[in-house]
Specification:
Elements (H helix, E strand, L loop, with lengths): L3 H10 L4 E7 L17 E8 L4 H8 L9 H17 L2 E3 L9 H9 L2 E2 L5 E2 L7 E9 L32 E2 L2 E2 L1 H9 L10 H5 L10 H12 L2
Antiparallel strand pairs: 1-2, 2-6, 3-6, 4-5, 7-8
Helix pairs in contact: 1-3
Organism: Aquamicrobium aerolatum DSM 21857
Protein name: 4Fe-4S ferredoxin-type domain-containing protein
Length: about 220
């Protein structure tokens, strides 16, 4: 399938998204089914670095009902399914059940590693990137091996991300989800426009999501 990745990337660019790597799958991966109902042999990850996707999502959202549940997932699905129909793939989202191992795929596809707060960090985009979905293929496709990337956290001495949270939700023990959620849902959280730990990271600050985008994601996280 020559130029398949380029074809997918070109289609995604019109929506502010891009190919975020690809992985060949074997029987040991227990992969989700491809378009023909058999375990997929290849997966192409779709996402973004920075918030280039946001204007496209906002325009689409303005054409939908105001009470649409999970609008970003709905938009992502509409984009991925359209691209999937062009290239003979099956679209899959991170929230689809049973959950697919998106984080493991991302580590294999782009050789990313977790930051101290658990999010995968990219050497260019920092913590300001995401995977919106994947395209599953029945057949093996030509995949270029990802280059080994430098892990910025390895040379970060101060680790500001670990000290910025107002309720100390991040520690060596992991992420205190309930503590974070209680803060965001409480009166103090009403003035919080994004994860302060994420904002404290000095990598990729030019790709930092605008305040409106961070507010949207925080409200979705808190179920507000």
């Amino acid at each position: 399938m020559p130029n398949l990745i380029s074809q997918i990337d070109d289609a995604l660019t019109a929506c502010g998204l891009m190919v975020r790597g690809a992985v060949a799958l074997s029987s040991e991966d227990h992969a989700p089914n491809g378009p023909l109902g058999m375990p997929a042999r290849s997966v192409v990850l779709v996402g973004h670095g920075g918030a280039d996707y946001w204007p496209h999502f906002e325009r689409w959202r303005s054409t939908q009902t105001q009470d649409l549940a999970n609008p970003l997932d709905a938009w992502s699905r509409s984009v991925l399914e359209e691209v999937a129909s062009l290239v003979g793939a099956r679209a899959l989202l991170p929230n689809d059940r049973p959950y697919a191992p998106f984080q493991q795929w991302a580590i294999r596809a782009e050789r990313l590693r977790p930051s101290p707060i658990g999010l995968l960090i990219h050497p260019v985009y920092g913590l300001w990137h995401a995977f919106r979905g994947a395209l599953l293929f029945d057949a093996e496709i030509e995949i270029q091996q990802a280059e080994q990337l430098n892990h910025p956290c390895a040379v970060c001495v101060e680790k500001p991300c670990m000290n910025a949270c107002p309720v100390d939700a991040f520690s060596a023990a992991g992420f205190a989800y309930e503590r974070c959620l209680a803060y965001v849902r409480g009166p103090e959280g009403q003035h919080c426009t994004g994860c302060q730990a994420r904002n404290a990271c000095p990598i990729g600050i030019e790709y930092r999501y605008p305040a409106s985008v961070q507010t949207f994601h925080q409200a979705a996280f808190a179920g507000l």
